Amino acid sequence: MPLRLGISLQPRWPLDGGASVLRAARHAEALGFDHVAVGNRLLDSGFGLDTDPFVLLSAVAGTTTRLRLLTSVLVAPYYPALVLANQAATLDVVSGGRLILGIGTGWNPDEFAAVGVPVRERGARTDDHLAAAKALWARQPADFEGPFTTLRQAYLGVPPVTAGGPPVWIGGHSDAALRRVLRFGDGWYGTGADAAEVTAIRRRLSDLAGTENADRLVLASAAFLTPPGVPAVVPPPGRPLGGAAPTAGSVADDLGRLTEAGLTACTLWLPVAAEHVEEAMEWIAAEVAPQLI
Q1: What are the distances in angstroms from CA 31 to CA 35, 238, 280?
Q2: d(CA 240, CA 261)
Q3: Which residues contact 291 (CB under 8 A, 6 or more apart)?
């Protein structure tokens, strides 16, 4: 199966660029991309339009029909477990089951302080919230007792259309993060992973799984790409696909190595200005994607 390519909707959008984001999502769908992704920032990051992923992806769901919708990534500790479960289920319903819930524990101390959540609790809260959400998505009365969430015969206000809830891709590289993937996840989601890292993650997941089947898990990652002729407005935070002077062939070669290592989905993060996003997507669809078939 060819590698599924998606587009991150997080270039430097102007603060009034909401309509441009939706237009880019529609264009991504028309070009045949598998998914679009939206991150989770609460405070100004300096990148322009910082949005709530549930809200923006709900708008994207209403203007597209096929495109999958990825939170990349949702910081689980920012959301009380019941709120997280309900909002994810709502988006699953309104999108017709197109949500992929990418989850992370977060890192930004200023945002944790602003929402009143101790940053040292981020791992424990993520585990608690995912376990509670899974219980609520099961379409039966949920009894749950965790360190931060208590449920007694609770029914979620809106059950997801996807049986058992939307697929959950979990980020992180530590043993604790990989155990979280095995406990709660349908996949692992990396950032800037190369083929060697994907291979190592597969091996570590298999080792940690013991008798459990780790092969059921999707392996996915975000990757950085500035197409030739398109100016970057910020430096990529990791090695770009295709190297410093990418060509369609060098990008396809890198993606091919990722596929051979076991990656099945790749979200392309484009560090370009808003006015160049559609041009960049068109180059990828015309020049790179055909080489992956």
Answers
A1: 11, 26, 11
A2: 18
A3: 248, 249, 252, 256
Query: What are the pLDDT digits (tens) for 55-112?
Result: 999 999 999 999 999 999 999 999 999 999 999 999 999 999 999 999 999 999 999 9
pLDDT category at 16 given cuts 50, 70, 90 is: low
Strand partners, 35: 6, 68
Q: What is the mean pLDDT of the chain?
A: 94
CB atoms within 10 A of CB 247: 14
Please tell me the pTM assigned to this model. 0.96
Task: Calculate the CA 171 to chain-centre distance.
Answer: 9
Q: Residue 211 — pLDDT band, cuts 50, 70, 90?
A: confident
How does residue 266 score in pLDDT terms, banded at 50, 70 and 90?
very high
Question: 118: Cβ–Cβ under 8 A, 6 or more apart, which residues?
Answer: 112
| CB-based contacts of 277, cutoff 8 Å, min separation 6 | 11, 20, 24, 270
Buried b (16+ CB within 10 A) or exposed e, 248-266: bebbbebbeebbebbbbbb
Residue 36: partners with Cβ closer than 8 Å, 6 or more residues away: 6, 7, 8, 9, 24, 25, 28, 57, 60, 67, 68, 69, 70
Q: What are 104-134's pLDDT values in tens digits?
A: 999 999 999 999 999 999 999 999 999 999 9
Find out whether 86 and 157 touch, Cβ atoms under 8 Å: yes
